[in-house]
Amino acid sequence: MQTPPTSLCVTDKTGCHQAEVESLTTSLSAQRITVLRAVRAGDFELCFSHKGLVLQENGGRAESILVDFASDTFLYRLQKGGGRRQPLARAVGLQPGYSPLVLDATAGLGRDGFILASLGCRVIFCERSPIVHALLHDGLARAATDPRLSAIASRISLYAGDCRALLPALSEEFQPDTIYLDPMYPSRSKKSALIKKEMRMIRALVGDDHDTSALLQAAIEHAAKRVVCKRPIQAPPLELSPQGSDRERQPDFAITTPKHRFDVYLPLSNKSAPLHPVAH
Known about the structure:
The protein is of the alpha/beta class. It has 2 domains: 59 residues, no CATH class; 199 residues, Vaccinia Virus protein VP39 (Rossmann fold, 3-Layer(aba) Sandwich). 30% of the residues lie in helices and 19% in strands. The protein is built from 9 helices and 12 strands. Strands 8-7-6-9-10-12-11 form a 7-stranded mixed sheet, sandwiched between helices. Strands 2-1-3-4-5 form a 5-stranded mixed sheet. The longest helix is centred in the middle third of the chain and has 15 residues. The two termini are 32 Å apart.
């Protein structure tokens, strides 16, 4: 991942989170992010508000991002998204009586992983952008106090950093059955205004993922049962790392939706398992 240069300010609009402001400022500074003491036009701002931690851009477009698993839109998706038969669930390997341990290696704002946790999976979030990690941490903390969401949040663990460093360090108990990748890619589809806004802001902060081939290679080497890579419907499969022994390898099968495709790779040790046909 290539991080564009940016400046950022951490503020508290409630008067109740000064300790959190200082803690987050220290954490971001330690990770070589320039944290300003005063907000300037055009800068990004992480703001502790009464709704939660909000990322906003000052000046120009009045846009903001809040990780809110209790929003009406997301609650509707939890309730009406298709349950264990929805494409995401089938792609990661949910079956009657079986819910895999999933490592969401590019967690982002956490929506897909939270859906999987709502379906019974234990989910490990891994996010290497300190700013996005802070937003996700805040959203999960609020979900943990919401009676509608607390049981789901209890099935999620959140780690900061690159999944390639995390994977070798996981204990046997937390070895993932499925590793899920949803890398940042240039958007060409006509997404909703909300998604466009979020993608624009996050890309301005963290850039595109330029090491997706290496991420995919590491995932294939460590997943016990499968790797799932979410792609735009018209995009080609990811190429494996040049250092990989099977860099010409194609997905074993795919599950598609009108806008996305879930490419599924089975580790070589699982090649004897029956493959599912491409689902449309």
